[in-house]
């Protein structure tokens, strides 16, 4: 819809409507900085990929999945809060969000799966508490998160922890 529109900065979606945003709708919108995703259930593949100025994203309470490459290379994104309704963060969803520092999960999170390379090279994340609902963390999910010092999986129900999940997290101490 808006892919490759370099001058697009903000989109305001109507509240109270069940809106579907297609794949790659805002991909490569380099000056796009803010969106409120009111009434959607899924953040589709590549929706905000390469939106290098995207700083603020409100993920609504009804979102169930963040699909592959949704926020890849959103290099100005610093914080993300996931609603309790979220069940899946797909492969490479936040790959190379190099300024992402804070990841917040609801205490009543229903998240089951964190995909392959989901947060790979998110080099400013320092701490993560994995929700108790998580069963699977994909290969290289936190690969090269070089500032990551602490990850708490003590309350999780992880049954699958794939290879290189925390590979090259050189600051990891706990």
Describe the secondary-structure layout.
Elements: E1 10-11, E2 34-36, E3 42-43, E4 56-58, E5 65-66, E6 79-82, E7 88-89, E8 102-105, E9 113-114, E10 127-129, E11 136-137, E12 150-152, E13 160-161
Parallel strand pairs: 1-2, 2-4, 3-5, 5-7, 6-8, 7-9, 9-11, 10-12, 11-13
Task: Assign a percent range to the helix content.
Answer: under 10%
Q: Write down the secondary-structure element order.
A: EEEEEEEEEEEEE
Q: What fraction strand?
A: 15-25%
| Sheet with the most strands, sense and barrel status | 6 strands, parallel
Structural class assignment: mainly beta
User: Given the C-alpha coordinates, what overall shape results?
Assistant: globular
The chain-level mean pLDDT equals 92
- Termini Cα gap: 44 Å
**Poorly predicted ranges:** none
Number of E-type strands: 13
Number of alpha- plus pi-helical segments: 0
For the CA atoms, what is the radius of gyration?
15 Å
Largest sheet, order of strands side by side?
A: 3-5-7-9-11-13
């Amino acid at each position: 819809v808006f892919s490759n529109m370099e001058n697009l900065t903000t989109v305001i979606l109507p509240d109270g409507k069940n809106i579907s945003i297609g794949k790659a709708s805002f991909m490569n919108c380099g000056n796009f900085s803010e969106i409120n995703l009111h009434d959607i259930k899924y953040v589709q593949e590549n929706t905000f990929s390469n939106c290098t100025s995207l700083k603020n994203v409100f993920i609504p309470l009804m979102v169930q999945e963040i699909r592959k490459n949704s926020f890849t290379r959103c290099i100005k994104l610093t914080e993300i809060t996931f609603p309790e309704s979220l069940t899946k963060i797909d492969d490479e969803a936040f790959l190379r969000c190099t300024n992402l520092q804070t990841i917040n999960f609801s205490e009543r999170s229903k998240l089951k799966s964190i995909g392959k390379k989901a947060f790979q090279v998110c080099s400013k994340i320092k701490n993560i508490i994995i929700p108790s609902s998580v069963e699977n963390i994909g290969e290289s999910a936190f690969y090269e998160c070089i500032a990551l010092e602490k990850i708490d999986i003590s309350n999780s129900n992880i049954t699958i922890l794939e290879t290189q999940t925390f590979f090259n997290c050189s600051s990891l101490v706990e």
